[in-house]
Design goal:
Elements: E1 8-9, H1 10-18, E2 22-24, E3 32-38, H2 46-57, E4 61-65, H3 75-82, H4 90-106, E5 110-120, H5 122-132, H6 137-143, E6 145-146, E7 156-162, H7 172-175, E8 183-188, H8 197-205, E9 214-218, H9 239-256
Parallel strand pairs: 1-6, 3-4, 3-5, 5-7, 7-8, 8-9
Antiparallel strand pairs: 2-4
Helix pairs in contact: 1-4, 2-9, 4-5
Length: 263
Amino acid sequence: MIPALQAATVDQRIEALMRTSELHKPEGEGPFPIVLQFHGCGGKKNLQERWAAVAKSAGWAALVVDSYGHRRISKFQAYATVCTGLQLWGRERAGDLFAMMEWARRQPWIDPNRIVIAGWSHGGWTALDAMSMTPGRQIENATRLYGLPEEPLAGLAGAFVIYPYQGIGALAPVNGLRIDVPVQAIVGTADSVVGGKSLVRVLNRMRTPSASIDVAIFEGATHAFDEIEAQDWRVRYDPALTERAHRMYAEFLTTAAKPSSAS
């Protein structure tokens, strides 16, 4: 069960998140497209920097968002409470995503029409929940975040989700996605944490405004196959599949989330 949420304004959430989030910015003045990266339930890890480097090499800025710093959730607490669903469900954490979208739109060096969200596991849950909720009362009730614009996801050009959790408590499988942008998902067939074939079925059935979610199936991939430092017995690092995923990330950013006619 989700504990009582602490209300905050968008400006308060932005300030809190930016204290411990990490920005990776290409050389030059821009304006640059940006990808907002949301970590898994274990917290911000080294793998996020490696993915951010891929984005930067493709000419994109990357903000590695830390959802735990301002909430004072330690690594132990994260595994004991967030990973088990006792606190910080995807719909609540979506407030961080909406706040960072607003932050990005305010930066003069960022292209406000080319913002991509990327999420790993719990971060994927967060991204898809954010894309499934209706602006106004539903979002405010879920996030307790106030002062959002009429369209909190204005400027969103795409979503890239890696082994996203879509089980009990996830809104997207029920609501479907509201925002019409390309969505790329990566699912491993040996993922015993969020599911392999079962997750593929959920994503393939998910209602979308137009094109279905593009689900890439990675044969033999476990959960967190891209984490070199993983110590979970359910996880096995696979360098070849990680390289494949990184290539897909760069291609998605440069192709699927291409410049709009308005930018």
